[in-house]
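Exam revision sheet. Question 4 asks you to relate a sequence to its structure. Input first:
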Amino acid sequence: MEDFMPDCKPKKPLNRPCLLASDLDGTLIPLKGNDSAKKALQQLDALLEAGSIPLVYVTGRHFDSVCQVMKAESLPRPEWIISDVGSSAYEWSGSGYRLSEAYRDCLGAMTGNVPASKLVPYFESIPGLRLQEDAKQGAFKLSYYTDAEESETLGSVIASRLRTEDLPYHCVVSVDPFNGDGLIDLLPLGVSKAFALEWLARKLGLNKEAVVFAGDSGNDYAALVAGFRAVLVGNASADVREKVSAAHREAGLENCLYCANGQSTSGVLEGARHYGLL
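Answer key, structure tokens:
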């Protein structure tokens, strides 16, 4: 397990970041009809390649969906794919992606190897929850749809039941920015996009200041306030923007948040340039 523990030796802070991590939907993927974002994607791809800067996807999508959208949107190839809201990690091997057994073992140890599928019976009696499609479930992720106006309330009910039953999971509540569906993801206790990205940074020998993370929505919140150099793209909601800004103020994080004017990919490119990554 020592591979998963934080390094107790302090690392010298880096003045210039050296890795770009990004959410996909609403962030790295150009918004439909936004020609400037499409141009920004081409620029970003060229700059990453020219600078040999590694790219990491950090997304709520499942792996197959990530591969499909990479092809459909001509996205730059990442070195790592953190999928399923931080509950899966895949590494580029030169010819394809392979599931990280080290990360899978980490989550197995955290949950006592209790798979997410075993949680279903505990929530069958809660009205308003709709299991997402099988392809959107994971070994350590159980996902539901809800009505958006009920999502926070249902999330509280689920969280209470998880505590009562002493189950090693927690829930993340968000709203799909494209169709307005409420989304509830059950993940191993403590696991999030931030947890996975912190694990990867340790694995690569990087401190948080070396990582630029870009996001736009509620399930990016943990990573946006974790101490990475954060970028909020211009299409992030006012509520998310205020919550992230407040968290940075309360935590005393200085110069770690950039609120971009550009939307989606344009905002990612703008933020990466702001931090001197590109």
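Marking note for examiners. Confidence is low (pLDDT under 50) at residues 1-14.
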